[in-house]
Amino acid sequence: MNEHTEILIIGGGMAGLSCATALAGSGRPVIVLDKGRGPGGRMAARRVEIDGANVSFDHGAQYFTARDPAFREAVAAWEAAGVAARWPAAGDEAWVGTPGMNAPIRAMAENLDVRWGVRAETVERNDAGWRVAAGEQTFTATTVLIAVPAEQAAVLLAEIAPDLAALAGGVQSAPCWVVMAGFAAPLPIADDTFRSDTGPISWAARNSAKPGRAGAETWVIHASQARSRDIIDLPKDQAAAALLADFFAATGIAPAVATHLDAHRWLYALPQAIKGAGARFDLALGLGIAGDYLHSPRVEGAWLSGRTLAAMVAQ
Fold it and tell me: Domains plus CATH for the chain?
């Protein structure tokens, strides 16, 4: 089956959906493809059942800040819609999605033509502009915009745009192992967040204390970059057990039995951002890229990069 659209965006995370929202708002036909099963990307939230109750873990970005006026306006709209709220425990300027970090992504996607669970495998030139193969489906588009992590963008661009591929391929991203742990009773930790610039644990948060959350005591624990690299190839159950032990040692509390324990490995968690225009667009090719790696490694950076690329295309 083949579909045609004027603009095809590969990647339904914050950068891709920010770009799509701006373009669709100006009346441009846009289709977004994303390999994930649903909204999230690095703002993912995972739902699990613990002792018969549904619980959500924010296992990607933990919060976001809003400093740019345009992004502040977007966040204010999310707050008014009930999909974002301030989280003072992480700082005066911290925000989270409600009831999960992926709520703003979900809200953006509802107004767009997003195809979840569709992985773009190849991008090739044809008489109509571009042909994108995605399993048994193909898409043709006049313009293709790629809004996935730099390492993945480099692979898609290698044969069709060597200069853009080299730009994306030059980005190095640090990995991050994340642990999701549930407990039958609150842990004896006064603060809802833990941070450290040294040691194996860089961040931990009482996920159940975030605005809009409910249920049992849950924690999300991030390994440091160095610790993540050291155990990068461990099976996730071993990584989860090792990092939970690190967490108890770092906080100085007695180990507690977890009623739920899981881990997720983000290979491209923290990119080294390229200083510059925030996005790239080749008008002659009808091909562009966006992502936090082109602006700043933050949720706001991804949103601004997507919005910048949309403005380039519109011009």
Answer: 2-44+102-171+272-314 (3.50.50.60), 173-271 (3.90.660.10)
